[in-house]
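Comment thread on ticket #2218

A.B. wrote:
> Attaching the input chain for the structure job we discussed in standup.
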Amino acid sequence: MEKDTRPLADLMRPSDISEIVGQTNLLGETGLIRRMVENHKLSNLILWGPPGCGKTTIARALAHTVDMDFVPMSAVFSGTSDIKKAMDAARMNREIGRNTLLFIDEIHRFNKTQQDTLLPYLEDGTVVFMGATTENPSFNLNNALLSRCHIGVLTSLSTDDLMILIERAEKFLNKKLPLTMDAKIHLAQMADGDARFLLNTVEYLINANFKNDLDSDALDNAIQKRAPLSDKASDEHYNLISAVHKSLRASDTDAALYWVARMMTSGQDARYIFRRLTRFAMEDIGLADPNAVQMAIATWQAYERMGSPEGDIALTELVVYLGTAPKSAACERALHDSYNTAKKTGSLPPPKNILNAPTKMMKDMGYGAGYIYEPDTASGFSGQNCFPEKMSRTRLYTPVERGFEREIKKRIDYWDNLREKINGKK
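C.D. wrote:
> Ran it. Output below, let me know if you need it in another format.
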């Protein structure tokens, strides 16, 4: 009999949903998929989750559990003609009393036209459709397709889930994994929630004929570690930089350091992180600490000159500085408020007192009339109006009572009080 050469991950794939590890939110007693099975009515479904969390396994097992023909397809290698062929076959199936579950992996890779091709078949029930994606469906799938499907959100498998898979693999192969218990736990953690990576590694380790059990350090030397998930165009990329921003905004410096480390160890470009941190220094700290943006530029330049790993300390210093700095969005609010006010007031001219009068005609027209040169006044302040004559004074910048903006507020209050006294005398 010819030996089955399929990968261990495929050989061990569960044939019934009751055998699947993890994803209790979908497969538990009150889970969406469990209810579908118990009600004997499957609905169109988009499975959204990270690699190796069981999307394909769930679809295959579900088709087997409810006795449907399983038709797999990849959006990477398939097109509109393949969809139509699959639908023709499904119609023929239905004529002989068989139902079809059409599974399309990487469904987000289909363009709008290809996604729209599915719609009439979903409407008339030619197939039960299931799509799998690692990308946020709300960003990558058409609203028309989304409106016809439930969304099943899958999460990375836990270390405990992966330890169960290690035990199952040993029983399936009838061989003991050449690892100490600590190394097994280390392997489960190293897999980072990805069952496929775990089982591929288990298969390699069992077939490698190690003479002695490996400890955690020996395991690291024996296999290539799995890089943490953070593709530059994926949801995870934006989730991580969002976590950096929110941690800094919350002054949770340790959390910010962790999320930056996650980005760096997954291969992110440090320049992208520096750019986002410089933006944070301007938007979320502002004049509460004027040195923040200077620190951002200086550490960025240091990294550019030194590179990694020597320059990594500059990134750490910046994260710590921003995390511990006082926070203020007063300047950002002033930006938006001033732009909105400028749009609303149209093309009001400046008051004539602050306009230059380089010609006699302009002087005769009143340009510069009444202008007061502040350094010549006793207080260095005139209180003269600089807004358009047909516009009342408007407060656009309101500093907070934190950091250096506390001092700025004192200055503004001083000028306001002095302006009121001067103008009250007129």
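A.B. wrote:
> Thanks. Noting for the ticket: Residues 14 and 46 are 20 Å apart (CA to CA).
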